[in-house]
């Protein structure tokens, strides 16, 4: 399931490519025909992410809400304007493509496709053509067929004169009124990149400290904190040296606040690089390896039976609320 950093990247891409433009909306699959008809021809006004959900505002007081869930993805075609707030891994103004992040002007390939520009969401092979330069014009006239042919089960297609976004396999795709959208937001926990981070920290701390639910489950509860999924959950707990079974109310307040601040930092890194980079203090070559392979960028996630990078104890994997939980039984005792 795409975690918070991916959805923020999607929202920023929509802000760059769709906001301020009239949008043609259709549902090639047919399952969202009524909603697409409501949006068709309207101007996109804003795009924002909160945790794992994206909201696009259209004129006429309508909102598109999308939750990708486990299998959803956005595929982009046409002329793509890159977001100048998303730098490459070394802090320079780079671009990302289907698999790689620019580092020292050379692409670092990620076989998992985690930091996709052309397809963001569930991993899949890209079938679209993308021109990533802000200076390029007229791709629709000069390049492949425009609009691009529909491939597979496209729930929603959003189209401007030069950019196309196809949505496949989402958990939720609906048109909401302003009140309905605010009602959805009210059910979500704080997101470090939305609103006042200090207020978010207070909400998160209060929510955790009043519950006996294990902290390993609370971090995945989107009403407690938005955007954390399986990878970030495991890595945050390890970085805090915190046993995932500790009841929330038994976690010291300073540790809870540390979790929030660490999440805020990791989320920003994820948005900038497109990858869930959770290891600190890496040299240039180690960092390049970590960008290229998720096996080299995480402390405990997906490392069942492998030695802990700190103490050498075998990493444990167990089921927690039907999701895989990875942790070190010694470092996080």
Q: Which helices and strands appear, and what pairs or packs with what?
A:
Layout: H1 4-17, E1 24-26, H2 33-39, E2 44-50, E3 53-58, E4 62-67, E5 73-79, E6 100-103, E7 106-109, E8 119-121, E9 130-131, H3 139-142, E10 156-159, E11 163-168, E12 172-176, H4 178-186, H5 197-209, H6 215-218, H7 230-239, H8 253-273, H9 284-292, E13 316-320, E14 323-327
Parallel strand pairs: 5-9
Antiparallel strand pairs: 1-10, 2-3, 3-4, 4-12, 5-8, 5-11, 6-7, 10-11, 13-14
Helix pairs in contact: 1-8, 5-8
Structure characterization notes:
Keywords: DNA damage, DNA repair, DNA-binding, Glycosidase, Hydrolase, Lyase, Metal-binding, Multifunctional enzyme, Zinc, Zinc-finger. GO terms for molecular function: class I DNA-(apurinic or apyrimidinic site) endonuclease activity; damaged DNA binding; oxidized pyrimidine nucleobase lesion DNA N-glycosylase activity; zinc ion binding. Residues 299-333 form the FPG-type domain. Its EC number is 4.2.99.18. This protein is α+β, with helices and mostly antiparallel strands and 333 residues long. The protein has two domains: 4-82 and 117-184, N-terminal domain of MutM-like DNA repair proteins, CATH 3.20.190; 189-327, Orthogonal Bundle (Helicase, Ruva Protein, domain 3). Helix content is 27%, strand content 20%. It is built from nine helices and 14 strands. It has helices at 4-17, 33-39, 139-142, 178-186, 197-209, 215-218, 230-239, 253-273, 284-292; strands at 24-26, 44-50, 53-58, 62-67, 73-79, 100-103, 106-109, 119-121, 130-131, 156-159, 163-168, 172-176, 316-320, 323-327. Strands 1, 5, 8, 9, 10 and 11 form a six-stranded mixed sheet that branches. Strands 2-3-4-12 form a four-stranded antiparallel sheet, with helices on both faces. It is globular. The model is unreliable at 86-119 and 122-142 (pLDDT under 50).
């Amino acid at each position: 399931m795409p975690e918070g950093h991916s959805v923020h990247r999607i929202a920023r891409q929509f802000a760059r490519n769709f906001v301020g433009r009239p949008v043609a909306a259709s549902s090639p699959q047919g399952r969202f025909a009524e909603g697409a008809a409501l949006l068709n021809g309207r101007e996109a006004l804003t795009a924002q992410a909160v945790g794992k959900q994206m909201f696009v505002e259209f004129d006429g007081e309508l909102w598109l809400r999308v939750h990708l869930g486990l299998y959803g993805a956005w595929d982009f075609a046409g002329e793509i304007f890159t977001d100048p707030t998303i730098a490459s891994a070394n802090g320079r103004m780079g671009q990302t493509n289907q698999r790689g992040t620019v580092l020292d002007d050379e692409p670092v390939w990620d076989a998992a496709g985690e930091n996709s520009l052309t397809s963001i969401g569930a991993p899949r092979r890209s079938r679209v053509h993308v021109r990533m330069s802000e200076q390029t014009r007229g791709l629709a006239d000069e390049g492949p067929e425009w609009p691009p042919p529909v491939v597979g089960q496209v729930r929603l297609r959003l189209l401007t004169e030069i950019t196309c976004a196809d949505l496949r396999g989402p958990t939720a795709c609906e048109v909401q009124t302003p009140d309905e959208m605010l009602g959805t937001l009210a059910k979500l926990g704080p997101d470090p990149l939305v609103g006042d981070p200090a207020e978010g920290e207070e909400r998160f701390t209060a929510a955790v400290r009043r519950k006996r639910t294990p902290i390993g489950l609370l971090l995945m509860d989107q009403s407690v904190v938005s955007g954390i999924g399986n990878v970030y959950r495991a890595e945050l707990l390890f970085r805090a040296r915190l046993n995932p079974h500790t009841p929330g109310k038994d976690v010291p307040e300073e540790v809870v606040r540390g979790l929030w601040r660490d999440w805020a930092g990791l989320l920003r890194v994820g948005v900038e690089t497109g990858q869930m980079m959770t290891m600190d203090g890496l040299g240039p070559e180690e960092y390049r390896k970590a960008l290229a392979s998720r096996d080299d960028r995480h402390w405990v996630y997906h490392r069942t039976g492998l030695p802990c990078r700190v103490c050498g104890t075998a990493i444990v994997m167990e089921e927690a609320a039907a999701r895989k939980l990875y942790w070190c039984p010694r470092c996080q005792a």
